[in-house]
Write a structure and sequence with these properties.
Strand order of the largest sheet: 1-3-2
Shape: elongated
Helix content: 10-25%
Order of helices and strands: HEHEEHEE
Structural class: alpha+beta
Distance between the termini: 48 Å
Number of strands: 5
């Protein structure tokens, strides 16, 4: 892996739930001495593809950031939590959904 990370380019990783985009960058950064950054933040609860730019590719990341993206989500209707996300305590619910 270290050989691959010493090249300039884009790296696609699968970010798991519970990890911030910054934590994902930091994990990869330990394996290279090159500049590295992500091309858009994923919510810590989200899972999915995170595009990382390594070395000279960081100069082109603005075009990836500006590109159209699509997201898929699963939601549960009829529950309200105290944090407005899936981790909070349910404070209200409805059978009418």
């Amino acid at each position: 892996m270290q050989k691959m990370l010493n090249k300039d380019g884009f790296l696609l990783i699968h970010k798991p739930s519970g990890m911030t985009s910054r934590q994902a960058v930091d994990r990869i950064k330990k394996h290279t001495n090159k500049k590295i950054g992500h091309t858009g933040t994923l919510d810590p609860l989200a899972t999915g593809v995170l595009v990382l730019a390594i070395g000279e590719a960081t100069k082109f990341s603005r075009w990836v950031i500006a590109a159209d993206k699509s997201y898929h989500a699963t939601i549960q209707l009829g529950h309200q939590t105290d944090t407005d996300d899936a981790l909070g305590e349910v404070i209200a619910q409805s059978d009418l959904v």
